[in-house]
C-alpha cells in the first residue's frame, strides 16, 4: 500500500469506528476547502449563511438539577467545533436540519452518539456528527448531579432563520 508522504495531509490512524470515519471525512473536506483559497463573497442577492442549534433537549432524568450553565459549556464547545466543519454547500445557503442524540457519562465521555434525522446532505450530516465527536470529552457532569448520565438531543440548523 502506498504511503502518503504529503506533510500537509490530515490523517487519523486506525479508523476503527464510524465516529472516527466521520471525523476523517470532515477533516479531508476541510483540507480540500482550505486548499481552494479564500472565497470571494456571496452571489448577488444571497443572504449570509446562518448556522445555529435549537435549545438542547434533555432526554434523561435530571433529578432536579439545573443544567443551564453546564449546557452552555456543551453548546459552546459544539459550536466551536461545528463551525470549523460546516461544508461549503451550507456556506452557500443550502438549508438543512440534523437531529442528534448522545449520552454524557459522569467523566464527560460521549457514548451512544446517533443521528435521529438527517439533513439529506451527507456533508452537513458529517459536520454535525463530527462536531460532537471532536467535542469528546465534555467537562465532567456537575458534582451536584446524582444521576449516572445525561442524554441530550441536539438539533443543528443550517440556514434557518
Total of DSSP H or I helical runs spanning 4+ residues: 4
CATH topology of one domain: Fusion Protein Consisting Of Minor Coat Protein, Glycine Rich Linker, Tola, And A His Tag, Chain: A, Domain 2
CATH class annotation of one domain: Alpha Beta
Fraction of residues in helix: 25-40%
Q: Could you spell the SSE succession in H and E letters?
A: HEEHHEEHE
| Cα shape | globular
CATH architecture of one domain: 2-Layer Sandwich
| N-C termini distance | 48 Å
Q: What percentage of amino acids are in beta strands?
A: 15-25%
For the largest beta-sheet, the strand count, sense and barrel status come to:
5 strands, antiparallel
Radius of gyration equals 17 Å
In terms of topology, how is this protein built?
Elements lengths: L17 H18 L15 E3 L3 E2 L9 H18 L2 H4 L4 E9 L5 E8 L4 H13 L15 E9 L3
Antiparallel strand pairs: 1-5, 2-5, 3-4, 3-5
Helix pairs in contact: 1-4, 2-4
Amino acid at each position: 500500500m502506498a504511503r502518503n508522504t504529503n506533510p500537509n495531509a490530515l490523517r487519523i490512524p486506525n479508523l476503527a469506528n464510524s465516529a472516527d470515519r466521520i471525523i476523517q471525512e470532515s477533516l479531508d473536506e476541510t483540507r480540500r476547502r482550505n486548499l481552494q483559497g479564500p472565497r470571494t463573497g456571496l452571489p448577488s442577492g444571497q443572504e449570509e449563511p446562518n448556522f445555529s442549534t435549537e435549545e438542547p433537549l434533555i432526554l434523561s432524568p435530571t433529578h432536579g438539577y439545573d443544567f443551564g450553565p453546564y449546557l452552555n459549556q456543551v453548546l459552546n464547545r459544539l459550536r466551536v467545533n461545528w463551525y470549523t466543519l460546516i461544508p461549503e454547500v451550507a456556506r452557500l445557503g443550502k438549508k438543512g436540519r440534523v437531529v442528534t442524540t448522545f449520552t454524557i457519562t459522569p467523566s464527560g465521555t460521549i457514548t451512544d452518539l446517533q443521528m435521529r434525522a438527517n439533513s439529506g446532505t451527507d456533508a452537513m450530516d458529517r459536520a454535525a456528527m463530527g462536531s460532537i465527536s471532536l467535542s469528546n470529552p465534555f467537562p465532567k457532569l456537575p458534582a451536584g448531579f446524582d444521576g449516572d448520565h445525561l442524554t441530550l438531543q441536539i438539533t443543528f440548523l443550517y440556514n434557518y432563520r
